[in-house]
Amino acid sequence: MSNFDVALSPTGGIKGRLRPYVWSLRSGLRTIRFLFGRFERSCPVCGYRGRFFAYANPLALGINFDSLCPNCLSHERHRLLALCDAEQSLFTGKDILHFAPEKGLTRYIEARKPRSYVTCEFGGKGADLDINIERIDLENDKFDLIICCHILEHVNDRLAMPELFRILRKGGTLIAMIPLIEGWQETFEDRSRQETEEDRILYFNQHDHVRFFGRDFRRRLERAGFVVDEYTAVEPQVAKYGLIRGEKVFLCRKA
């Protein structure tokens, strides 16, 4: 233990009371050092190789600071999806509907030559269609593949999942990704904790989230009719591509 730490021991009076402030300041300074990356990573979305940047809320999420590809702006979930595609050829020759599309991932998908590629956004900002995922104004059995990444934690998933199943063709696949707490058997969603923005940040980690999914996310998909498979972020891909350990791509098939 350093002389500085001894001076800040609980028996050190006012100096002892300053100890947590000093520790937090040190932690903050270490954080600043790595805002623009620490390790060299690779991006399977755009091919970039170099340091990734910190993004969003890494302290609350407990995720790797090397999160954002500075070239295509991919996040961990986009890179995991690209790796899943490299193994399973998800996009080529498919009729695709993509909710809340990100530009880097859109370019990646279009380069895989889908048969058709339609984007949608609630409110229609910069997308092909304006769609409310809880009440989709499209005919049945329309798409081979639907991409729904980090959408279901924002909406009523009990309404959205049957709608997604309805517009998917037989044999088609819903790609679903969500923040998942594997240690929880049940999803946490409490309307009394959603009344203010501060409540939603405190309980659900983001101002527009309304739940944290637990392991029962799979059962929710199955109740809507899906057969659920999973693709998981594991080593050494986690370190190489800057992924979240254990994050999953849920491949939900309409049998």
Number of helices: 9
**H/E series:** HHEEHHEHEEEHEHHEHE
Q: How helical, in percent, are the residues?
A: 25-40%
Shape: globular
Distance between the termini: 62 Å
Instruction: List segments where confidence is low: pLDDT < 50 over at least 5 consecutive residues.
Output: 1-9, 58-63
The chain-level mean pLDDT equals 88
Strand order, biggest sheet? Answer: 5-4-3-6-7-9-8
Query: C-alpha Rg, in Å?
Result: 21 Å
Q: How many runs of DSSP E, i.e. beta strands?
A: 9
Category from helices, strands and their pairing? alpha/beta
Largest sheet: 7 strands, mixed
Portion in beta strands: 15-25%
Description:
There is one protein chain. By secondary structure, the chain is of the alpha/beta class. The protein contains 9 helices and 9 strands. Strands 5-4-3-6-7-9-8 form a 7-stranded mixed β-sheet. The protein has a two-stranded antiparallel ribbon with strand order 1-2. 33% of the residues are buried. Mean pLDDT is 88; it is low at 1-9 and 58-63.
